[in-house]
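Example (one chain per record):
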Amino acid sequence: MIRFQSARGPRIEAVHRFSVGQAVHLKSWFAKPLRTDETYSVIDCLPAHDNEFQYKIRAAGERHDRVAGEGALELIEAANAKGRN
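Predicted structure:
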């Protein structure tokens, strides 16, 4: 959770957009767009880095974890809904 204190108002608390166990696509990796349909599972929610929440993710066939920012991930259900429109 990120807490922001404004000079005039109350604290604003941000929450992680993804939770442990959700299936996601990796949209980009180190600012390079990816064109893969590989599915990753969120293993852990990490603290923010540069004002962006981080997540530990793992693909089903991999034995190692990756760390990705919230902006680089897309929820699988949201990705499928876009394809149907």
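Caption: The two ends are 33 Å apart (CA to CA).
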